[in-house]
Amino acid sequence: ADSPSRSGVFQAKTDKRLEAFAESISFDRRMYHQDIRGSIAHADMLCSVGLLTPEEFSTIRDTLREIEAEIEADAFPIRLELEDIHMHIEQALIDRIGDVGRKLHTARSRNDQVSTDVRIWIREALDQVDARLADLQRAFLSRCDRDFDVILPAYTHLQRAQPVIAPHYWLAYVEKLQRDRGRVADCRKRLNECSLGVAAVAGTTLEIDREQTAKALEFDRPTANSLDTSSDRDFMLESAFVLSVIASHLSGWAEEWILWSTVEFDFIKLPQAFCTGSSIMPQKVNPDTLELTRGKSARVMGNLQTLMLLVKNLPLAYNRDLQEDKPPVFDSFDTVIASLELAIPIVEGSELRRESIASRLERGYLDATTLMEWMIRKGMPQRRAHHLVGAIVGEAMERDVPLSELPLEAMQMHAPEIDDSVFEILGSKNAVNAFVSYGSSAPAQVRSQVERWKSQLASS
Ligand code: ARG
User: Fold this and answer.
1) Are 141 and 453 in contact (CB under 8 A)?
2) Does the active-site annotation cover 387?
């Protein structure tokens, strides 16, 4: 579809069914600002190289701004036969200023136009994602001081493993989100080349200045190969991937806090403003926001799959299949941004159930590994220490007591080398304080990591 009223090589009118099948205005309308910005930069460049007069350029620019204001005010009629936002805007321009408007599409095709618009749109969206990731990092960080004295079980295989302090948990998420931000920045860097001016597929015989357009639109440089550019959707795949990793981090966190909020765990109280009740069970406070965060992550991952399948068999260069790229990308951004915006107040507003956590902290032998390492420090080979502590834990289980309440003699029956200084490292609190390695849950280690993040996140 090149124009609403068919002519030229076409002798038949477009079938109405094709119009409805082929339109993209229903989802690409949201790129109107990027489209107009790109068109003004393009027209400015056409003027610099003598393809438009300064008067023609200012007429085009001013009319495009007028059209933009109307779209913003929702005073702009949508016509399916105009297919997409690009043709809607160009047609409106032509309707208003005639032949001058007909010059805008000089040395440009919708192929490079769409690619540029999407790049600008994604670039802005990535910046929004980054800002929200930073806010979520700050939300986790803000909990660190207030929860510093809380000891939680760390789990492997969802079985109690070793004791950690609560801020060690919070900073685990800060680290994951930092890698997400790294991926966002990396993706942004690679997409930041300007496709405008590759025209349909092979470039143009007109002497345009692609450097100028690239610079005006804040791209680092123009793309170097018109065939590649016309087909390239790597930046959409990459953003969908980056968003999938974020969604996976949010989903894992949501799952964890859903578990933690159950009667069975009773580790955390979620802010009620982000929970809902039941229509039949009066006592219920359900963690719907977290469940939906977990559930919606499936959409984000599915969108990545959709995009991979969309591009995998396409020969060079532009193929109309590529129109299908935008709904999944937009949906992934919308979903992840909304999920991040809800995660922030939940992280800030949840309360650890300190008494409940403490009341069961000495169940599960969180200090068994600490005891084993204490014996290693006394000179015992690790395999032997592991075996003996296993036997000691077995003994404690039989008596149904934590290690710190097992009599010294009972331990010595298994390992005569144990003396009563062992009680300095038994119990979750002692065990946490016994950590020393870099990156461990040693309070001094965690403290210095908290301070590092405070200064790092103060600026970004
Ligand atoms: N509406 C289309 C899209 O969103 C524009 C592509 C135009 N190119 C073409 N040769 N028909 O991708």
Assistant:
1) yes
2) no
